[in-house]
Amino acid sequence: MTRRWVSFALIAPLLAFLIVSFIVPVLLMLARAVTDRDLDRTWPASAAALRTWDGEGLPPDALARTVAREMLAAHRAGTLNRVANRLNYDLVGSRSLLYTTADRLAAGAPGETLADLARIDRRWARADIWTVMRHADGPLTSYYLLAALDRRIDTGGHILRVPREQAVFVDIFLRTFKIASLVALFCALLGYPVAYLLASLPRRIANPLLILVLLPFWTSALVRTAAWAVLLQTNGVVNDLLQYMGLVDAPVQLIYNRLGVYVAMTHVLLPFFILPLYGVMKGIDPTAMRAASSLGAPPLLAFLKVYLPQSLPGVAAGAVLVFTLAVGYYVTPALVGGGADQMISASIAFYTSQSLNWGMAAALSLLLLLPLLLMLFAGRTMVRTVPA
Amino acid sequence: MLMAGTRLPLVEFRGVEKRYAGGSAAAVAALDLAIGRGEFLTLLGPSGSGKTTTLMMLAGFETPTAGDIRLGGRSLADRPPHKRNMGVVFQNYALFPHMSVAQNLAFPLRVRGVKGRKAADKVVAALTLVKLDGLGDRRPHALSGGQRQRVALARALIFEPDIVLMDEPLGALDRQLREHLQIEIKRIQRALDLTILYVTHDQGEALALSDRVAVFAGGRMQQVGTPGAIYEHPANAFVAGFVGENNRLAGTLVARQGDRCAIQLAGGQIIRATAADPLLPGDKVVAMIRPEHVQPGAVPPACCSTLEIDVDEFAYHGDHRRIAANVPGAGSLIIRVPVDMAAQRGDRMTIGWCIDHCLAFSASEIEPGKTS
Ligand SMILES: Nc1ncnc2c1ncn2[C@@H]1O[C@H](COP(=O)(O)OP(=O)(O)O)[C@@H](O)[C@H]1O
Ligand SMILES: [Mg+2]
To answer: For A286, which residue in chain B has the nearest alpha carbon?
Structure first.
């Protein structure tokens, strides 16, 4: 009992650090994917009134009056843009509608009834702006998550696909998972023999080779990616070599397309596959292979029946690690990929740092995180079924 | 010898030598050894004496650098391990951790194309043979050390190999379990008429189990023979010291007549012994006498040699007592005496032995790895 408290006390600082600097910020960020506080924080009375309204047709005058008052107050306090931006996501034009209305109210136009507002701008007499406000009344919303799946709720509450030309995220997600899966597969194909070699060589020879595997860890991904750009360019070393060997007549496009992404990402992530697998392979009793052949199994059969199954937890660990990292990759596809090779993290970065739509960024992150958590869980159970 | 007569030996080592790359000395040198069908032969020697290397060359995991190994009269030189049909029990058992016990046992059957009912029956029979009925579904890591050992043995037997090779199979087990399993192995060997090449560094185990024992030291076979021959007539000081308990008294040969000789010990006392090596007066020699062959007190003079000793320790061992004594100027000595004898620390006493029991060897022989 005391021992347990002592060990807990020992890890407590790290735990506190993790909670404060990692878990809480991540959760707060992810919460933005499902919360919608722009309107109800700025216009609390309107939000309360919107929630009590049945949403049928046009709102009562009392609601219109509350909205008009809070619109004017927010305009004076300089906080109107939060609501304006929020409503504009759902209904293009809401932004200008709010600002012109607020300007006129500030200039003395009456705002006591729905009819008053409709006199300022006719759009107030239409149901859609009110429905949109009702959807935005918080505190929770499905807006961002649906948008991240190329879906939206229409003013009548039905879930619809967005028009084809606006539907981008599902394609990007599928592309991201496809690229990450293939990179994990390439890492497995290239990394398994290397890990096997490292694990079976005597330490004296394996250790220097292991350093060669680790070397890429000590150079930044940016530098390595830039190096690939040099190697793979139209007049680069690889193209020269291919032409010299007579394999191709003219330079082939090796970069700024999907091929470049696969080559560079596989290289960058390969150590993450090799290391866990090497660790698992080191733990495999080498006499088990000898036992298999003494029992009559030819080398290939011994490998397939005895070695491979014991190394699978390492393959799973390495593949999950590479896939997880690849799914979040950003720099490499941006540098060596073409326009059609961008992955979902590029969109997340765009919403985080350029359009400042953090709700959207959070929704995309959440959708990226959920399959990863599932995979990690599946990987864990897979590792657990094969004891070391 | 057991294979004397017209029967061909099952396995023959002919002038076999093994040098590992980078190793200066040969791990095994000039090995000539024949194993008869149905024989239980044990390689006995201290750690590093080349036992495992010998076994691995026979199993095909190491290649001899010189000489030839034959199975049933045919050279094994070009036969890979999986075609040798030898059951190997590894020191660490080498069970497949990702397979159940039954799957481990079925493995050699499966690779031989034996499947289904027939394989299942064999697995059940093998489990019964090693007294593990009902444990077929367990994973190896859920078994005790002794049970794993039994699984390894059953797996090495189930495909009816020509010979079973066992490398210190009981080395990792505690004493009681080891003795129990020794009896089991012997029982199974008799029941199935197995040929076994067994490796151990435990001389008690070797003597108890084997038809013949081959004693190894420094990569060379020192002597091969029945346990009785090895114990009673060791070929050199190493074998005398390694097999069973033995006292060593160092001295100089002063006279020799036939195989009888007189040795002057460092302290000046003269003892008599049987020369087991060709020795000449003036040679440095060691006289070896087993504790149970030393007789305390008065002894008939005809076949006897006597020695004055000082008692250092007098210890009770249940069925006997042991005296640790000091031979003035010539080192120490252990004597086994009946329980009813009385003595105490500091006593001076006279001991003696039959000259047949005290063997004199040239002192230049290899030093034994252990003497008890
Ligand atoms: N793979 C190897 N490479 C180099 N030297 C080895 C190798 N295996 C064993 N040796 C050496 O060969 C000698 C005999 O070893 P081994 O056959 O394992 O002895 P034992 O089984 O009697 O303990 C030892 O000196 C050991 O160091
Ligand atoms: Mg050994």
So the answer is: B94
- Chain B residues closer than 8 Å to A299 by CB: 82
Instruction: Report long-range pairs for A77-85 (Cβ below 8 Å, ≥24 apart).
Output: A79/A42, A80/A42, A82/A38, A82/A39, A82/A41, A82/A42, A83/A38, A83/A39, A83/A42, A83/A43, A83/A136, A85/A38
Nearest CA to ligand 1 atom 10: B27
Cα(A364)–Cα(A362) distance, integer angstroms: 5
Q: For ligand 1, atom 16, which residue shows the shortest CA distance?
A: B50
Residue B53 alpha carbon to ligand 2 centre in Å: 7
Coil, helix or strand for B350?
strand
Give me the residue spans of the domains in chain A.
38-138, 169-385
Interfacial A residues in 280-309 facing B (CB < 8 Å): 285, 287-288, 290-299, 301-302, 305-306, 309
**Ligand with an atom nearest the CA of residue B25:** 1
Give me the tens of pLDDT residue by residue for chain B, a chain 372 residues long: 444 444 679 999 999 999 998 878 899 999 999 999 999 999 999 999 999 999 999 999 999 999 999 999 999 999 999 999 999 999 999 999 999 999 999 999 999 999 899 999 999 999 999 999 999 999 999 999 999 999 999 999 999 999 999 999 998 888 888 999 999 999 999 999 999 999 999 999 999 999 999 999 999 999 999 999 999 999 998 999 999 889 999 899 999 988 899 999 988 889 999 998 888 888 899 999 999 898 887 666 656 888 888 999 888 888 888 999 998 877 889 998 888 888 888 888 888 898 889 999 988 755 544 333
- Domain covering A169-385 assigned CATH 2.40.10.220 in the classification: no
ipTM (interface pTM): 0.84
Pairing between strand B163-167 and B86-89?
parallel
Ion ligand 2 nearby residues (CB, 5 A): B 52
Choose from B52, B71, B82 for mutation: most chain A CBs within 10 A.
Answer: B82
Q: Three-state SS for B112?
A: coil
Q: Whose CA is nearest to atom 18 of ligand 1?
A: B52
B60: closest chain A residue by CA = A294
The domains found in chain B, sorted by start residue, are: 9-85+162-240 (3.40.50.300), 100-155 (no CATH), 245-362 (2.40.50.140)
Q: Is A135 helix (H, G, I), strand (E, B) or coil?
A: helix
Mutate to test the pocket of ligand 1, among B16, B47, B51, B53 (most ligand atoms within 8 A of CB): B53
Which residue's structure tokens are 């090796």? A254
